[in-house]
Amino acid sequence: NAGVTQTPKFQVLKTGQSMTLQCAQDMNHNSMYWYRQDPGMGLRLIYYSASEGTTDKGEVPNGYNVSRLNKREFSLRLESAAPSQTSVYFCASSAAVGNEQFFGPGTRLTVL
Amino acid sequence: GENVEQHPSTLSVQEGDSAVIKCTYSDSASNYFPWYKQELGKRPQLIIDIRSNVGEKKDQRIAVTLNKTAKHFSLHITETQPEDSAVYFCAASSGNTPLVFGKGTRLSVIA
């Protein structure tokens, strides 16, 4: 089992460009999450999906959109990237909301 | 909503000494408290967790204690080793809400 996978691993964008970060899990988990990690700020929740067909905002949703494509896949889209969105992005999944989360390897995004 | 405070933000200990990291939470409905370890450039990984019906849990050199009355929980690492150097995150959840993470503690074990 691969667990939680993310693509790409690294990405450099120019201000105003758009991109989609992909996440997939093979653990048959119901819930999936997107976090950003900035130095000294810990892990901040952007959006989550408690189950297939639902999505909810987290602590820092502005500038992002998400799609729960199916039970396995949860994507994060930046429509118009800004330098403030330079960060490391982690996807995670869990059997249910509030349970142990398993994290993907992360995507390091730089917006110039 | 839930708020989790974690202290200290950095901690240096000599190899073989103990390390203690403390977290407080605000929501009395929280009942699940995991601890994650993140090595440099890697993903966070669960090292131990505790639920509100238990006061203490141990796994070899690590232990977590929970005080529901005071709304705080702590991670204890004994006989620290250089490979324990990492960033540690606490988190809390009420069970039907996502985990809320503390801001992390950077632990350095000096050989």
What does this structure look like?
The complex is a heterodimer of chains A (112) and B (111). Chain A is mostly beta strands. In chain A, 0% of the residues lie in helices and 52% in strands. Chain A has no helices and eleven strands. In chain A, the strands form two sheets. In chain A, strands 2, 4, 5, 6, 9, 10 and 11 form a seven-stranded mixed β-sheet that branches. In chain A, strand 5 (42-49) and strand 6 (56-57) form a beta hairpin. The relative contact order of chain B is 0.35. Chain A binds chain B through residues 31, 33, 40-45, 48, 58, 90, 97-106, and chain B through 6, 9, 32, 34, 42-46, 49, 89, 93-104.
Write out key terms for the chains shown.
heterodimer; A: 112 residues; mainly beta; seven-stranded mixed β-sheet; globular; B: 111 residues; 11 strands
Give the helices and strands, then pairings.
The complex is a heterodimer of chains A (112) and B (111).
Chain A: E1 4-7, E2 10-13, E3 19-25, E4 31-38, E5 42-49, E6 56-57, E7 64-68, E8 74-78, E9 87-94, E10 102-103, E11 107-111
Chain B: E1 4-7, E2 10-14, E3 19-25, E4 32-38, E5 45-51, E6 56-59, E7 62-67, E8 72-77, E9 86-92, E10 100-101, E11 105-110
Parallel strand pairs in B: 2-11
Antiparallel strand pairs in B: 1-3, 3-8, 4-5, 4-9, 6-7, 7-8, 9-10, 9-11
Summarize, please:
The complex is a heterodimer of chains A (112) and B (111). Chain A is mostly beta strands and 112 residues long.
